[in-house]
Amino acid sequence: MIAKNGGIAYADERPYERDDMGILWKRIGISPGKGRPEFGEVHFLRQRRAMRKLLCQVCGGPSDRTPEGTLWLVGEDPSEPGPWKPGDLTGHPPLCVSCAVTAVLACPHLRNRYVALRVRSFVVAGVHGALYRPGGLFPEAHEAGALAFEHWRIGWMLAGQLMMELKEFTVVDLESEHTAYLKRTPQ
Hints:
Layout: E1 2-4, E2 7-9, E3 24-25, H1 44-53, E4 65-66, E5 69-75, E6 89-90, H2 97-106, H3 108-112, E7 114-132, E8 141-148, E9 157-172, H4 174-184
Parallel strand pairs: 3-9
Antiparallel strand pairs: 1-2, 4-5, 5-7, 6-9, 7-8, 7-9
Helix pairs in contact: 2-4
């Protein structure tokens, strides 16, 4: 990483390593259909595509959308009380109902605690990644976190996830959602 034009850059940066907003993304290998799921490790290209196109984060198909909203599962920190609030950010893309049920059973992060939401209003709001400290020719990462696109330090972020702000939603019961899905889906 080098310092360049009020932010960070790869010394050998290629045009596709920044998105249309000028955000620098971390480098990652691409080998579709190979390997096994690594829970807790997000493949940022897949995550970005799923967020932008509202695709299921597990199977890559369409997320479940009803008049009540798009289905999202969010992990909830068991040490913090209360449900999600409007304006909270997530790096987790939406899901289809069948993958949501599977994810709760298979994902260690969700197995302990999760919240199912039907989200009516949302907006891509920023990125999560490694934040570099300005100064010197070779800046160093000093913290990880999320920044809004308009934040003055966005040029110092090496992004790894697109963040979605969930504005209007209803907390729902995943079992009830699954039952309703089975009733409206031809078998």
